[in-house]
Amino acid sequence: MIDPQLLRDDVHAVAKKLATRGYILDTGKFLQLEQQRKVLQTATQDIQQQRNARSKEIGQAKAKGENVDAIMAQVATLGSDLASKEQALAALQNELQEMLLQMPNIPHTSVPVGPDESANVEVRKVGKIPSFNFPPREHFDIAADLNNGMDFEASAKISGSRFVVLSGHVARLQRALIQYMLDLHIGQHSYTEKYVPYLVKSESLYGTGQFPKFIEDQFGTSNDLWLIPTAEVSLTNLVRDQILEADVLPLKFVTHTPCFRKEIGNYGKDTKGMIRQHQFEKVELVHIVKPEESYTALEELLGHAEAVLKNLELPYRVINLCTGDIGFGAAKTYDLEVWLPGQDRYREISSCSNTESFQARRLQARWRNPESKKPELVHTLNGSGLAVGRTLVAVLENYQNEDGSVTVPKVLLPYMGGIKMLNPQV
């Protein structure tokens, strides 16, 4: 959530920055509500002071043996008036809060300005795009010949479209990717591994910015529990309503979870294969840091996600997303896009974002600044390290051979139980 004080200080400046994201802030409505809030808050404080003064007079009058009926009547009237004003103030504050909850984050100054993905800026390309002496196939065709390693008909019977059943060596390859990613981030990048709930309360989704804006994209239950769209929700909420001491920061969490999204608005896109599914696997990275360290942490987080691709020897590129393409809660986002030979294009495999204090303000996640001795909001960052299903897709397509086999990447061999090649007959 944006700092309300920024809006109070210069709502037009904030509106100008949000407009670069395609969000039109109703400045007139905000100023009207804010003015009403000020008037009501002042009136409420005045009535409270009057009631306190009259209550004090009652005590003094009783001590002197004087009649206090008239003063008590005044206190009762003031109390009724105060309750009415407090109720009106609470309703107004709720309206302002709802308005704030709908506002996206303010983009960082280093974010390119543009309306959509066409204005994104390529930062760098890494790795050599493979050349094949045969037409490269897409992952679902490759896996179909690996003893039906990717079965979409079976999953459709069980759950409908946009699910998959993985079998045999393809399933093992996905498990190897998960184990490798976790070991890399824990062993070399110093993350603390977490096991977290896959079902969360509404307030957890409000805290990380999925609610209220994206409520229609989530799978929910009948008892106000929601399947996580990303483990960022569970990991970031670990510091909700906490005041952290400076010496525990930064915190770096990693976890592997399934994730669940309805993909509303994306029907018709990537209807075949594993690129866009309702249930998918991710290894998620979250940083909780001091504000002055968050952009250094963003580059570090990006590097950790890149390390997976580098070690798998998969060609990729880094994209600095423009204002019209960054996520709702992000102040800045880098996308990692991996090369998919079957599609002859780069596809997103990770987003690494700095939300600054946007999530922390919703979560009331704070740290105690040793200089001021006061609690201040932390900065939160998140990124995929990586999206497992899309990494599986990239491995199948980049390591495919003309005879239909798939070579296992070197770094995954210790996790494959001696399997070096996925062969069509297996």
Plain-language structure description:
This protein is an alpha+beta fold. It has two domains: 26-101, Serine-tRNA synthetase, tRNA binding domain (Helix Hairpins, Orthogonal Bundle); 117-422, BirA Bifunctional Protein, domain 2 (2-Layer Sandwich), CATH 3.30.930.10. Helix content is 39%, strand content 20%. An eight-stranded mixed beta sheet has the order 1-10-11-12-15-9-8-4. A three-stranded mixed beta sheet has the order 7-13-14, with no helix packed on it. β11 and β12 form a beta hairpin. The longest helix has 37 residues, at 27-63. The mean pLDDT is 95.
What is the fold's blueprint, element by element?
Elements: H1 4-19, H2 27-63, H3 69-101, E1 121-126, H4 139-144, E2 150-151, H5 152-159, E3 165-166, H6 168-187, E4 192-193, E5 199-201, H7 202-208, E6 225-227, H8 232-236, E7 243-245, E8 251-260, E9 279-289, H9 294-311, E10 316-320, E11 332-340, E12 345-354, H10 358-363, E13 366-368, E14 375-377, E15 379-387, H11 388-398, E16 406-407, E17 421-422
Parallel strand pairs: 4-8, 7-13
Antiparallel strand pairs: 1-10, 2-3, 5-6, 8-9, 9-15, 10-11, 11-12, 12-15, 13-14, 16-17
Helix pairs in contact: 1-2, 2-3, 6-11
Short description:
With 426 residues, this protein is of the alpha+beta class. 39% of the residues lie in helices and 20% in strands.
Radius of gyration, CA atoms, in whole angstroms: 27 Å
Judging from the principal axes of the Cα atoms, what is the shape? elongated
In CATH, what is the homologous superfamily of the largest domain?
Answer: Bira Bifunctional Protein, Domain 2
CATH topology of the largest domain: BirA Bifunctional Protein, domain 2
- Helical segment tally? 11
> Widest sheet: strand order?
1-10-11-12-15-9-8-4
Helix content: 25-40%
How many strands, what sense, and barrel or not for the largest sheet?
A: 8 strands, mixed
**Spans with pLDDT under 50 lasting ≥5 residues?**
none
Mean pLDDT: 95
How many domains, as an integer? Answer: 2
Mind telling me which CATH architecture of the largest domain this is?
2-Layer Sandwich
Distance between the termini: 52 Å
Q: How are helices and strands ordered from N to C?
A: HHHEHEHEHEEHEHEEEHEEEHEEEHEE
Structural class: alpha+beta
Number of strands: 17
